[in-house]
Fold these 2 entries.
Entry 1:
Amino acid sequence: MRAIRSPYDGRLLAEIPDADANDLDQAVERASAGQKEWRLMGPAGRAAALRQAAARIRENADELARIDALDCGNPVKGMRFDANLAAVLVEYFAGLAPEAKGETIPQAGGKITYVTREPLGVVARLVAFNHPLLFAAAKMAAPLAAGNAVIVKPSEETPLSALRLAELVGDLFPKGVLSVLTGGAELGAGVCAHPGIAAVSVIGSVQTGKAILKGGADTLKRSQLELGGKNALVICPDADVDAAIDGAVKGMNLGWTAGQSCGSTSRVLVHESLRDRVVEGLAKAFDAVRLGDPSDEATEMGCLSTEGQYRKVVGYIDQAIAAGAVTAAGGAPENVPAEGFFVRPTLLTGVSADMEIAREEAFGPVLSVLSWRDEDEMLAVVNGLDVGLTASIWTQDLDTAMRLTDRIQAGYVWVNDSSDHYLGAPFGGAKQSGHGREECLEELLAYTEQKTVTIVPRTRKTPIT
Ligand code: NAD
């Protein structure tokens, strides 16, 4: 049994068993049987079930948000947003179900060649701890819409809302089509190696993405990888400075996940002419953030989700200070509301591009400020890492915006904006931030296989052209 505790006050929330190899075999067997029925329901039937699932998520958004706030320490307001967003994404993929369609290829002599898209079979989705309900609900949607059965494995740290989700929507699908299995990396590895599972996709760290590819190699699993980043926000000399400061704060996703979002800004590269103004503005905004009980509606930022996260983030801050960085805001765990895993929004100056804090994902409320004078040198810093998930550019000059968006290596680039996702807009990483794109048609198609058919009519006397 795994004890699930609140990261805010340490109280025991639940004890959850880890699924073992036998549980996994049974889930795959049931998924495989249920998928045959689910597939035959066709796009319209599947879309109807998914729309009902979205409605139930929306009806229960408050309860789901409260579970997440208790379990992961993110403020309940942000988790209610997540529950409603999950419903929107489930509806979006319901609407896309008929788009898993094929094509015809012209042939001579009355032959016909056409291509259909079939579901893969059983798909597993391993998800991260930071948006527990959003990931569990939204990531089941595309493979289900395409006619697959889905096994969701929530993070072992924050499994509660995924279990509640299964209770709320499980009866809408044929038996076995949706399973939630709880457990950690060992279960994840079992999923990767299982011959009855066709695809394993993960939302997680770069290291886990590599383990998934290795673990799935013997069974040649398909996979989509949504991995980590070290996201840069670039402020050009002509930027609207106040808007850029607001954008950098928003880009941190402090009120959503205390900075524990893959797309969060963690490096600000500001032109040296604006550095002091930007540091002053960011420090002021960081100091004003009200930390508190994640279940309280008034809380602006919660705590980190696990002790491991807390230690990692504090370790990065300590390391940065030892290497010469200076805290312009936050830092020490003072003035926090409880014994929970709180870290104040922390602004580090005096950071150079070679420091660990400038190169590695801390995954928390820590923002490093680096300044630049030469555009090529700035781009070398932005692109000088193995990862490239998001970037944000602040300029009022269209040429500069076009030039920088072209040269920055990232899967998603905002100009004069940060953080926001847009329905249907592909989200995913360049370089080691991942493979594939989600929240868009490509996500649906990733859970299909093309089948090409050529038919030669033998009954006609004269060929038609
Ligand atoms: P994690 O990689 O530790 O775990 C993710 C999931 O994979 C969990 O369900 C975990 O149990 C499982 N897992 C871990 N090791 C495994 C292994 N060896 N084999 C199979 N499964 C394994 O990630 P986390 O700490 O939960 O989340 C934080 C990371 O996720 C950060 O790096 C963050 O950037 C990334 N993330 C990416 C996105 C994105 O869309 N790109 C979104 C959110 C989080």
Entry 2:
Amino acid sequence: MSQAQRIDLHLHTTHSDGSLSPRAVLELAQKAGVIALAITDHDITTALPEATLAGAELGIEVIPGVEISSRFGDAELHILGYCFDWQDPTLTKRLAQLRESRHTRNPQIVRKLNALGYELSYDDVLRLAGTESVGRPHIARLLVDKGYVTSAKEAFDRFLANGKPAYVPRELPDPSTAIQWIRDAGGVPVLAHPTWAPVSGAELSHLCRELKAVGLGGIEALYSTHKPKQTGEFLALAKALDLLPTGGSDFHGAAKPDIDVGVGRGDLKVPTKLLDPLRAAAGRGH
Ligand code: AMP
Ligand code: ZN
Ligand code: FE
Ligand code: FE
């Protein structure tokens, strides 16, 4: 309870591939001294009503959030969206279509695993997931439950990660399309975990400049796995390009057991002062 005030703008719940309910995440957030947060489930915003209700009880502000995967060559860029109208019918329809691409891909992954000799069905995956936003971490969890691997990480490293034998790419929008979807709903699009991008240094700077030209509003400079030097670089990049710095843990619960709400691996602290500029940028377009 003596934790200094902070925010966490990147959290997953059972509405996508996190292992805890929105309320359980909010309870952990309160213990960590988080005064405002965004649930950023993949391709879905259905956690918001429960999160908002729990936030009202626990004294935590909940701002609308989402995380959209986009296609960047052979890699993915994840675009976070904040402060949008989460009931916007166009966005709701677009996210539903995006979730459909999961249901096209996932059974193909299961078939590849079957061909490798592992017995599991997509019905098992759907039952375990219990949400419409079904992802590879759910398949990883099933592989753990069945005793085929000892951790979700092992499932990714051996089977599910890009380039591994059960990897199947998913049909995804371009980064500029994902950015436009967030803008169309009045929100602020932010490049998630920039160290996951397949480019760095001057190339990353160039990419961010291009994305800013099509509406990018921020960059996730503070993130659980960033080393202090990387945080410094991304803060400088945000400043140089006039992008808003944001930050969050990318908490998933059991899928990433080393990451905690609000504090990441222990040394994450996203300052509360980052929130007002984000709110002010919403609805402004670009
Ligand atoms: P999906 O959206 O179904 O393609 O699954 C992607 C999600 O899986 C990411 O957002 C991460 O949460 C998780 N993930 C991706 N790569 C890995 C990895 N190598 N190890 C563990 N989790 C991963
Ligand atoms: Zn995830
Ligand atoms: Fe992500
Ligand atoms: Fe995430």
